[in-house]
Amino acid sequence: MLGLALLFFVIAIVAAALGATGVAGVTMAVAKWLVMLFLVLAVVSMLL
């Protein structure tokens, strides 16, 4: 899951460099949600 977040982050950086700000914004939002989901699942797995 963290790998997917990093992939979306790289896509956002490349899209921003190429001037596609809409695509960059969407992929950055997806990456942010994947990181949040990863953190929640990591905390839950440490507590169990």
Task: Write a structural description.
The chain has one domain. The protein is elongated, with a radius of gyration of 13 Å. It is mainly alpha-helical and 48 residues long. It has two helices and no strands. The longest helix has 27 residues, at 21-47. The mean pLDDT is 90. It has helices spanning 2-18, 21-47. 92% of the residues lie in helices and 0% in strands. InterPro entries: DUF1328. Belongs to the UPF0391 family. Keywords: Cell membrane, Membrane, Transmembrane, Transmembrane helix. The chain crosses the membrane at residues 29-47. This is UPF0391 membrane protein SAMN05444422_10337.
Summarize the structure.
Keywords: Cell membrane, Membrane, Transmembrane, Transmembrane helix. By secondary structure, this protein is an all-alpha fold.
What distinguishing features does this structure have?
48 residues, mainly alpha, 0% strand, elongated
Q: Number of folding domains?
A: 1
Q: What proportion of the residues form beta strands (DSSP E)?
A: under 5%
Shape: elongated
Number of helices: 2
Query: Which percent range fits the helix content?
Result: over 70%
Query: N-to-C terminal Cα separation, in Å?
Result: 19 Å
**Unreliable residue runs:** none
Characterize the largest beta sheet: strand count, sense, and whether it forms a barrel.
none
